[in-house]
Request: fold
Amino acid sequence: MQVKTIQITVFQIDNETFDAIGDISQFTSLAWPDKFNGYAFFEMWCPITDDNAALLKKGNVLWTGGENAGIIEIVKSIIDENGEKSFNVKGRTLEKYLDDRILWGGYAYTSTLKASTVMYNLVNACAINPTNTNRIIPYLECAADAQIGNSLSGYQKTGGSLYDALTALASDSDIGFSVLFDPNNKKLIFEVRAGVDRTQDNTSGNDPVVFSTELEDILASTYYTNNEDEKTMALVQGEDSGTSRVLVTTGAVNGVGFNRKELYVDARDLQSEVYDESGTASTLTPSQYQATLVTRGDEKLAEHVITETFEATIRQFGDVQYIYGTDYQKGDKVTIIDEQLGISVSARITSVEEDFDDEYELILTFGYAYPTLLEKMKRTTT
Reply:
């Protein structure tokens, strides 16, 4: 089995400080994840020592040397039946910071913009250069905009979490976002990316990455599909009341019979007169307003697609064909062939988990993972 060692460095990051304060020299296990779209949850077990106790404080940041880092949110002290004392540490990756900001006031973009541009604009307005400087997230800046994702002819959003708005925009465009950790320059960098096509038949000239049970790349696998939440077209109603309410349709509006699955979207929060966080008003034209309703409908439809995921534990011993971080990254599209499950698909790597225990394991999730109960509950309230 491949032996992979890492060093866990702890940073104290607050309004005045961005410093490495020590290393975790002893730990028994670490599940270190990285997601293509948004934050992921990590978990670490380590012995209770004076050094670990001093470092493992809520709000401190763990870094394993890559581009992502995790914020400590839960520290539990445990004594088992054998008298062994352990810390159980949990938290989320740096994208969690974006969940600490809301859309303060209304945000409306009436010109045609790429989804990534809207995402960068929202982060800039809410967390980097807000009118109220108290809202600035220290050390945060935006990467260069590659202008990727869907072209949006109208976008409007009032209230709600900045993180939720970014997640919806990214999901609708099949792109991802991260907050990258740059300790050398003491920066947190918000980046939107598309991933690279490394499928077997890609026409971009990229070296293909193919995981196959026949080649014994895949040690264990799980396939999941679910269409219980599927919707194919949406009726979106906006401002006004009764028969005067503005309405649009979007999606597969010509679908018929059993293939037609309708979704109603109440978008009365979207108004033709909008205000920014400074209180300045502007009025949208009828076509601009209808475009914002279509964008809202498309976002909601993106939450109601057929879920299809494939999770695989990738072999890390012997002659390994592809090295994670070198030959492929999160967000890349690759080909998976599982003869035992009868699956041959080209899919995006949406989540990567490295498990450091007695043996090193690499677990990849392809497609979009089915929502947890918490995510479903949160979705119904937005």
